[in-house]
User: Fold these one by one.
Assistant:
Number 1:
Amino acid sequence: MDKDDTLLIGKIVGVHGMKGYLKVYSFDESIDLFAPGRQIRLKKSSGTVSTFTVKDVQSYKNVLRIVFEGMSDRTAAETLIGSELLLKRSELPEPEEGEWYWCDLIGLAVHDIDGTYLGHVENLFETGSNDVLVVKHGDEEVLIPVTESIVCDVDFDEQKISVDLPEGLL
């Protein structure tokens, strides 16, 4: 993945209160991506893209409450419902050792530790206890839990993931 690729990091799903706060469903576990002062691009359903600067962010249940500079009332905030929040990949902090961004894993080849090609990562999803790789090979699809005991190595130079699958997973 190119470091200049634009990534979807959240979606505006509603408004909160009368002071321009937006309810944002974040696709990232960290509130840090939405820190005050960060510039975020919003893509409306019409396709227009505008840049806004975060003024304040609060975590609330399963959403974030965000207000942008210059946004001070509910009416203005309502016009942004449904907008997607975008950042360039290069604006994301580097993940910690042993952690990866989903977008960086999509497309990588997956091999069992014996070298058998299992397919490529088409998608990922979250189960609550761990993430799951959706690996496709032709019409075949296998779901591989992302756990330390199964994912042995992620090699971005080789563009591959090595896994040690428990018996019966395939």
Number 2:
Amino acid sequence: MKALTIKEPWASLIVQGFKKYEFRSWKTNYRGKILIHAGLSREDVDRFKDYNLDISSGEIIGEAYITDCIKVDDEFDKELREIDPIVYGNNHVGVYAFKLENALKYEDKVKVKGKLGLWNYEE
């Protein structure tokens, strides 16, 4: 199964339904289910104190489906900021947005070391 390591609080924002796009400097042709792995790094956690997040570290915390990969231009960046200026407040022009759908938070998290890029998780 494909997995993607994401810093917190971004990973928790995805599995709890607040974040529908994950941004990367590289594009992917992969479409389908991925596991969401909360990496060991954290940034900007206090910015999301009102979101009641369950912050994790070094664990697979849920899943989502990559349904599209979009190169972010000025217009799309503006649309993102209108969706949620706190979640999408940074400038994303020039990077790729992985569109994530059907996110699901797992009750039972799985401790595992993450990797760069899309990686394969073997149970």
